[in-house]
Each structure stands twice: as structure tokens, then as C-alpha cells.
Amino acid sequence: MWVNGFAERHGALAWSSTESSVGFSASDGATALLEPFVLGAPARPGVLEDLAAWVVPPTRLALILVRRGGYAVGLGQGAELIAHKVGTRYVQSRTAAGGWSQHRFARRRDNQADALVVSVIEHAQRVMLASPSDALVVGGDKALVRDVLAAARLARIAGLPRRELFDLPDPKLVVLQQALRRGRAVRITLTEPATSPVQS
Asked: Judging by DSSP bridges, how do beta strands 162-164 and 135-140 pair with one another?
């Protein structure tokens, strides 16, 4: 396990835990913060068997990525994407025009965004609700994601434990697959002795 290698490189470990992470401090001053996709700390974070069980990712992940102009929804079973829908939908960008033109463009943009949200809700419902999911990964535009998850039809999905990946690029199949990998990964933040923190 990764923690064993960390201890071999940096010396004896002390640990602490919260509801969402476990931290290790090594005798040489190095630290590591582990954040898996789970709620609740392991019963015995210093016992590697308990820690290994705690970092196991959810089996079935629902994924919703949406940005102005594109969307991707999917269902992951383990590391495999077993169902998905990826598409494009034009949403006009903001304009520098003033007066009535500005209001007209704003209304058009809002209508296009509303249509995008409705489309994503429909695809998410079809792809995800046929079978239960254990957790949810979202990414893209925060406001659009919020509007999608506000739909009553997706209440079961919206209430799941969630990981947010708002740094993802425009939704495409390859980005959806990347979101599945990152959603299942344990986030590890390392601080080496006398160095700046490194995010892995």
C-alpha cells in the first residue's frame, strides 16, 4: 500500500483523522493527507487493513458534466463506463452590445441555458436511474450543475455523496472517462520536508 512506501521513505508515522481524511506525519517532517471518496473516518486509521478498506472507491458512480455548449452523463461500474450520453448544445456567450440588444441576447442566452439543463436532466434520468448509484461526480459550470441537480426527477442522484471536479474541460467522452478515474481516486496531498505542498 502507498502508506508503506511513504513510511519507508520518510520514517515512523503518526496519524490523525477527520470525517473525510486521514493525515500522516513522518519523523523527517514530511506529511501526507489522504482524501478518498467516502464519508466517515476509518475506525483505526493507524491499522493498514482498516485504512485499505476505507479508501476503496464506490462501486457505482453517477457522473454529470455540463458546460455551456456541451454535456456528458454516465454511469460507472468499477473502473468501467457502462452507460453514457455525450452531446453538444449551443449556449450563446455574453455580448458587449448595450441597450435593447443586450437584453435580447441575455434572454436568448438564458433560454438556451434552460434548454441545455432540461436536456441534461432527461439524459441523466435515462442513463442513471435504471439502477442505483453509490455516489456522484459532477463537473463543469457550477450554476448549470446546480440547476440540473435541482430537478425533482434527479432527487435520488442529488442526495448521493458527491465529488466535485469543476476544473475539467469541455465535456466529451474522454473527459467523462477522466472524471470516472478521478472520481474513484484517493486524493493525496504531500508536503516534503522544507518544500512546498504538492498535489497528486
From this structure: parallel
* Domains of the chain listed by start with CATH number: 2-57+185-199 (no CATH), 60-184 (3.30.420.60)
Residue in 184, 175, 1 with CA at minimum distance from that of residue 78 = 184
Output the pTM of the full model.
0.76
Q: What pLDDT score does 13 carry?
A: 86
CB atoms within 10 A of CB 185: 15
**Model pLDDT for residues 2-54, shown as the tens digit of each residue:** 888 888 899 888 888 777 788 889 999 999 998 888 666 666 666 767 777 77
- Measure the CA–CA gap between 157 and 134, rounded to whole angstroms: 9
- Cell numbers found for residue 9: 521513505
Sheet-wide strand order for 31-35: 13-17, 22-26, 31-35, 187-191, 197-199
According to DSSP, the residues that pair with 80 across neighbouring strands are 77
Rounded Cα distance, 75 and 62, in Å: 5
Q: How many CA atoms lie within 13 A of 163 on its CB side?
A: 26
